[in-house]
Structure formats: C-alpha cells, structure tokens
Amino acid sequence: MASSSSFLRSILFSSPTNFPSRSDSLSSFFPKNLTCSPPSTPSPLLSVSSIGSRSIRRVGDSRRKLSEARSMATTASQTGKEENKKRVEIFDTEENLAIDLAKYTADLSDKFCKERGAFTVVVSGGSLIKSLRKLVEVDSIDWSRWHFFWVDERVVPKHHEDSNYKLAYDNFLSKVPIPPGNVYAINDSLSAEAAADDYETCLKHLVKTNVLRVSNSTGFPKFDLMLLGMGPDGHVASLFPGHGLCSESKKWVTSITDSPKPPSERITFTFPVINSSAHVALVVCGSGKAEPVQMALNKTGSVPAGSVSAEEELVWFLDKPASSKL
Ligand SMILES: O=C(O)[C@H](O)[C@@H](O)[C@H](O)[C@H](O)COP(=O)(O)O
C-alpha cells in the first residue's frame, strides 16, 4: 500500500510537477527583517472513489453533521450578512480535517495566483501549524507566489522554542520553496511596541508595491487567506478575552505586554485586519475547546473567536470533539 504522502499526491492532486525539497539552513532561510524589501486546480480532495469505504462513510457523516451545524450557526443569530459568509465543517478525525484544509488552501492558492499573481497567507502559532502538514504534499501549488505572514508573534528570538516563526519554519516553511524574501517575520531585535510598528510599516510597504491588497470597505489590508487557531479561552491571534486590544480600531498591528498566555510580550494583528481578510479558516480541534466553539458559533457567550469574520468567507474547521457542544 502507498504511503499516505504518495497516496495523497497520486489520488488527490494530479499535477506531475515536483518541487525540490528545501535544503536551506535555518539561518539562510531567515527572512529579511521588516525594513523589508518585499519583493491547476487540484482534483477534488476526497476523491471518494479512490478512498476506502470507511473514509467515504466518514466524509458522509461529516457532511450530515455539517449541515446540522450550519443550520445551528445560522439560526443562532438570524442575521444575514456575516452568517451567510460563514461555514462550519466538522471532521471525524483531525487527519481528515488536515486533508480538507490542504485542499481548501491549495484551491485558494490556485485561484489567487491566477487572478493576481500572488497569494498572501497568514498563520497563527499553536496546533494549527501541525494541521498544515498535508499542505506540503500538494505538488500543484505555486509556492513562488506565496507571501507568508504571522497573525501574531511572541517577542522572542527566532530560534527560541516559543517563537511562532520557529514553529512554522520547522513544520512547514522548511518543507516548501516559498522564496525567503516572501516570508515576513518580525524583527526580533526590537521591543514589542517597536516590532509591532515595524511590522505595520512592512505591511504598508507591501500595499504600496501591490503585493497586499486593501479592503475597499474598511481601508485595512486584505489578506487572501488567514489560517487561525483558537485557544481554550476562545482567544484568536493574541486577542484575549476581556483585553482592551480586542477593541483596537485604528492600528493594523499592535503589541501586548501582559498576555495571559506566556510569553507575555507579543505582537498581534488587530480585529479590523483579521476581519478584512478575503478568507479566514478557523481551525479548532479537541474537546477542551468545545465550550468556546459553542460560545462563538451559537452566540451563547462572548469570546474573541466569536468576533472573527471575513469579507468573502469564514470557514470553521472542527474535529468532532471540538464540535461536541454544538
Ligand atoms: O502564538 C500564539 O499563542 C497563537 O498564535 C495563538 O493564537 C494560538 O493560535 C492559539 O493559542 C491556539 O493555540 P493552540 O491550538 O495550540 O491551542
């Protein structure tokens, strides 16, 4: 039987193109810091006829659950606009979630690379990064057009265990050929406040050079895709429940020095930036997050994740345990 990676490659994505595996050392792959000078649709994911019958049933089960969750999410607040742009996908296993997330991201990459010759992608830290493991197996992605950002970063050196850069580098960036100049890490030699200002300056430069779009309706930068995790307290990025930064309405990037989740010093995108994204995927797994998921989706409580929206589409990717209270 084929390994899961060749299995994915052969049945899910038909492009024969292979990209070279990355051999750059960590230090040579460090991006320019933020005085930056930035520089075929895959076949359907669960090509069900090619996958074992147990997986097909799981997908079917997931889809039924999905429609239930969709109607719950919709009836919870009868509003039109934001709710209509929201989808909830529930997967039997985190493995199936990771496969679908890869397909979702690859499709958007294809669309934006064709439409505008670039794909601006933002990631959080945390367990999300592990769920991107199937994405590195997609041969059809034009990585050269990717521009890679962090929605939040801990203010620590890039080689530090707490660094979101290091987490993404070790588990994702080191495995795909995104040009190093298109990877926008924070300047880790600055204070939190200065690093946030520096990152915002970088984003403004990328707007000027047309790498990054601006939302016509909000005037904030419009990333093509944000891939976000959610903490067990319902935080997203470094926007924590009850923290004043959740209502920041002017800055693009801001700093926090009293983060309840260590380390205390971080920079983070603000809600207006997150919510001006074209697409947002909120990826949440595990029963420990079932309650904030319920609070956010059924509007039974107030958690930062419940304030996330997107200009085109917000998709919640949940595994069964995370959806158990819906
Ligand atoms: O740097 C961080 O702390 C993150 O960017 C943060 O927003 C993370 O995504 C959530 O805390 C979820 O993390 P887990 O999935 O590991 O719970």
From TrEMBL:
E.C. number: 3.1.1.31
What Gene Ontology molecular-function terms does this entry list?
6-phosphogluconolactonase activity
InterPro entries per UniProt: 6-phosphogluconolactonase_DevB, 6PGL, Glc/Gal-6P_isomerase, NagB/RpiA_transferase-like
Q: Does the keyword Hydrolase apply?
A: yes
Q: Name one GO biological process term.
A: pentose-phosphate shunt
Sorted UniProt keywords: Hydrolase
Name the protein family. Belongs to the glucosamine/galactosamine-6-phosphate isomerase family. 6-phosphogluconolactonase subfamily.
Tell me the organism. Answer: Brassica campestris (Field mustard)
Please list the residue ranges annotated as the Glucosamine/galactosamine-6-phosphate isomerase domain: 93-316
Gene3D superfamilies found in the cross-reference section: 3.40.50.1360
Ranges of Basic and acidic residues compositional bias?
58-68
Question: Its pathway?
Answer: Carbohydrate degradation; pentose phosphate pathway; D-ribulose 5-phosphate from D-glucose 6-phosphate (oxidative stage): step 2/3
Q: Where is this region: Disordered?
A: 56-84
State any GO CC term. cytoplasm
Q: Which reaction does it catalyse?
A: 6-phospho-D-glucono-1,5-lactone + H2O = 6-phospho-D-gluconate + H(+)
Task: Tell me if Acyltransferase is a UniProt keyword of this record.
Answer: no
- Tell me the protein's name: Probable 6-phosphogluconolactonase
